[in-house]
Amino acid sequence: MWNRRKNGDIFPCWQTISAVKDEAGKVSHYVSLISDITTIKESQAKAEYLAHHDPLTKLPNRLLFNARVDHAIERAHRKGIMF
């Protein structure tokens, strides 16, 4: 989920909503908890970049090349293009 800070910045967040029940077992109200997961998303993006690029040269590595070739072949098969 995405949320907006008071300064207007948009940030990723995780939201959980829990029902609170009264003595009779009926829902009386809900409690919502929103957690900012910006640092988690940044860490995931950095790990993905490092998995697909050489740390010294910053050039794409063989893993990224193979993934892009596989994607191109799949797309060509879907569209009926000879590859």
UniProtKB/TrEMBL annotation:
Q: Which PANTHER family match?
A: DIGUANYLATE CYCLASE DGCT-RELATED, SLL0267 PROTEIN
The entry's protein name is: Diguanylate cyclase
Residue intervals of the PAC domain: 1-49
List, alphabetically, the Pfam families matched.
Answer: GGDEF
Instruction: Give the top-rank taxon of the lineage listed in the UniProt record for this protein.
Output: Bacteria
